[in-house]
Specification:
FAD/NAD(P)-binding domain; Enolase-like, domain 1; 5-stranded parallel beta sheet; 12 helices
Length: 399
């Protein structure tokens, strides 16, 4: 009997890969191994719809158990992989069982980064079960402190305000989401959250978290009922590291998403790939979707270069933030109706490299889609025209 294809990690990237393998005609044995008891699901709703109570697990799942059974995808939950032996093309499960593989995809994702030496009243948000635990205590009047001014922290803050909580956001840096956003968008986010009644504190150094308060290094004490920590993700690279695969901040891959070991690929939040000449990870819905599909195709021997553009979105109250491509030092700003912004990032030849849009609702989505086409078209652009809100991007696309 031929060895199966195995996917380790039953999150978004792993689930998408499994479904793609069947869509592309693979009929052999296919095993999907996950740490969580749930079927593959998407994570963006965790801080929005699921936390608000407007959606449930079924609403963010990629498939149901009947579909998996119909497709002949074996889902192993609660029996994680403990050891990987690339030379022998096999892995071991927690119950001691060894499974051989013909091809392997590592989509092990990550876990919420923890604050050291913290116990009481602290919750994190990375999984469905963590979202349910948090939802159960976000009651009107709850004094919530969010540690971390990145997207997870800010989305939790926005949802909690909508549920009637009193919210304070503590950010260690000088601006919100400073690692991924330009200063003008960070400032717009700051103003929006303060308008919505969130007490945002920047440049905060924490000393400790107590059962009923948070203390700054300078001695300030902030009373609270609950603390949510959103300070990033810790990629699950331990299995790959122990097996001798090349790792950095994630599992390193080549331009085909292949790891340093034969017949092993990586995808999703744990995958460290080259973009613009340097290694990086992308913790986004778009990346999990694209790399899950791509790794599946290459597991089937297609040998296709991974060239997908990065991008992400975030909903903040009634405003939407969308990005596509990569940021460059040369930026052109276009003011949009209603106080929105569209930022264009150009290279030295005035080709569009990336764009960032900030506007009410999803009104900027069409512009970002046009920017994606402009990036692909490689048309030299006039910065004056880009800055002019009266000049349509569709017109620029026609040259």
């Amino acid at each position: 009997m031929n060895a199966p294809l195995i996917i380790v990690g039953a999150g978004h990237a792993g689930g998408r890969a499994a479904l793609t393998l069947r869509e592309e005609g693979y009929t052999g044995r296919l095993i999907l191994i996950g740490d969580e008891p749930h079927l593959p699901y998407e994570r963006p709703p965790l801080s929005k719809g699921l936390l608000q109570g407007t959606t449930d697990l079924a609403g963010c799942s990629l498939c149901d158990s009947d579909q998996l059974a119909e497709l002949g995808i074996e889902h192993i939950a609660g029996n994680p992989v403990t050891q990987l032996q690339p030379q022998q093309h096999r892995l071991q499960l927690a119950d001691g069982q060894w499974l051989p593989y013909a091809g392997l995809l590592l989509a092990t994702g990550g876990r919420a980064r923890r604050l050291p030496q913290v116990q009481a009243n602290v919750l994190y948000l990375r999984t469905h079960d963590e979202a349910l635990a948090l939802r159960s205590v976000l009651n009107p009047g709850t004094r919530l402190v969010v540690v971390g001014g990145g997207f997870i922290g800010l989305e939790v803050a926005a949802t909690a305000r909508g549920l009637g909580c009193e919210v304070t956001v503590l950010e260690a840096g000088p601006r919100l989401a400073g690692r991924v956003l330009p200063p003008v968008i960070s400032q717009a986010l700051l103003e929006l959250h303060r308008e919505q009644g969130v007490d945002v504190r920047l440049n905060v150094a924490l000393e400790s978290i107590q059962a009923d308060s948070v203390q700054w290094v300078d001695g300030q004490l902030l009373p609270c009922d609950l603390v949510v920590v959103g300070i990033g993700m810790q990629p699950n690279i331990e299995l790959a590291t122990a097996a001798g695969l090349e790792v950095g901040q994630g599992i390193r891959v080549d331009d085909y998403l292949r790891t340093s070991a034969p017949n092993i690929y990586a995808a999703g939040d744990v995958c460290e790939f080259r973009l613009g000449g340097r290694y990086q990870r992308q913790e986004t819905w778009r990346n999990a979707e694209a790399q899950g599909r791509h790794a599946a195709l290459n597991l089937l021997g297609r040998e296709i270069l991974f060239e997908a553009l990065p991008g992400f979105w975030s909903d903040q109250y009634h405003w939407g933030l969308l990005t596509v491509g990569v940021m460059s030092p040369s930026v052109v700003t276009r003011a949009l109706p209603g106080g929105g912004l569209l930022l264009f990032y150009l290279d030295a030849e005035q080709h569009l490299q990336g764009a960032c849009g900030w506007a009410p609702g999803n009104s900027v989505a069409k512009d970002i889609k046009l920017c994606e086409r402009l990036i692909a078209a490689r048309i030299p652009l006039n910065p004056t025209g880009l800055a002019d809100p009266e000049l349509s991007l569709k017109h620029l696309l026609r040259g």
